Amino acid sequence: MVDSSSFLTPPVPSTTNGIAAQQELGQWVLASNTAVAIFNADDQLYFASPSFMQLYAVQPGDQTFHSIISHCFHQQKGPRIIGPLSQWISTVQSKRRTIPVRTFEVVMLDGRWMWGTEVTFTNQWTMVQIIDFTAIKNKEFALQKAHAEAVLAAKTDDLTGLPNRGAIIQRFHQLYEYCLGQHQSLTVAIIDLDHFKSVNDNFGHAMGDAVLRHFSTQADILIRAAGGVIGRSGGEEFLVVLPNSPTSCGQDLLEKLRVHLQKHPFSTAQSIIYYTFSSGLVSSTQLCSFEDLYKAADKALYTAKIRGRNQDCVSTPVKANTQQ
Questions:
Q1: Which CATH class is domain 4-137?
Q2: What is the pLDDT of residues 102-115, one digit of tens each?
Q3: Domain boundary assignment for the chain
Q4: Radius of gyration of the chain (CA)
């Protein structure tokens, strides 16, 4: 139950001068283009400034809060109302007159943002003031967008557009915790483009960068489709995380990528560059660190290179180092 004793006492002029002062104040409100409305205890509209009447399309004659909102809804004017009208009004009514001073946002159908202030007096009369703060809201949106873009940029590799090393490791921890809770296996693969230095030496670093972007795009499409994620860990090395996948599934996926690259090499008007990659894979269903998995996958990658490159090598699953 709301304690009405906390509400503001309505101003009551006790003298002729007081009445004159209030009348003068009312004229100022009318001249200021401020959207102001006063509702009595029965929610009937007692006063509305021209700005409020225009904003809420208030019709001539006796009006209530309910009739004003209903008219707006059916005529598609005024505030944006989501969902059934009765439910929207019920939700709003449950908040009105609950505290002495209440503030709220109103989104208008024309795209403007309004800031409302509702003042409730001890006699349950309410005064509502609506001001346009679209410019402020737009600045807020711009700041939020800039922040989101900055966060994304900090996690993205500039050259390839893939997650950078820090971001892919962070994603590993998220997926690893999920798989651990679901008692699922997780596979980590390190991919290294074979003899990539020769690409830079023979075609130039700009062409080498283009090849890295080509690989990133092709690999990202296939790995994402399989529910995994790939990031660039540095140079021509990439890190793949495949949740709910044993190493056999990882090998199948990488072989599919290898065949795809053979059929769709990097090409320009002047050159066609075929390239291959080697990889080391490891999976674990045990509680262990990222460093342990990475070292095991890196060791397997080294073995794949020793064996002639353009192939995958699987490391034995990493188990937890438990302490009793």
A1: alpha beta
A2: 999 999 999 999 99
A3: 4-137, 155-314
A4: 33
- Distance, in Å, from the CA atom of 128 to the CA atom of 241, rounded to the nearest integer, reads 55
CA gap 238, 163 in Å, rounded: 10
Q: Which CATH code of 3.40.50.300, 3.30.70.270, 2.102.10.10, 2.40.10.10 fits the domain covering 155-314?
A: 3.30.70.270
Sheet holding 312-314, edge to edge: 229-234, 237-243, 186-193, 277-284, 312-314
Task: Report pLDDT digits (tens) over 304-318.
Answer: 999 999 999 999 765
For the stretch 76-106, pLDDT in tens is: 999 999 889 999 999 999 999 999 999 999 9
Cα(273)–Cα(277) distance, rounded to whole angstroms? 13
CA distance 143 to 209: 33
Q: Is residue 149 flagged as an active site residue?
A: no
Phi (first) and psi of residue 251, to 5 degrees:
-65, -45
Q: What's the CA gap between 278 and 309, in Å, rounded? A: 5
* Neighbour-count burial of 49, counting CB atoms closer than 10 A to its CB (0-12 exposed, 13-18 middle, 19+ buried): buried
Nearest to 36 by CA among 16, 8, 58, 14: 58
* pLDDT 10s digits, 170-184: 999 999 988 888 888
Point out the catalytic residue in the list 24, 118, 177, 236: 236
Quote the Cα angle for 18-20-24, to 5°: 115
Tell if the pTM clears 0.85, that is, is over it: no
Q: Exposed, middle or buried: residue 94 (CB in 10 Å: 0-12, 13-18, 19+)?
A: exposed
Q: Helix, strand or coil for residue 70?
A: helix
For strands 35-39 and 45-48, give the pairing. antiparallel
* Number of other CB atoms surrounding residue 184 within 10 Å: 14
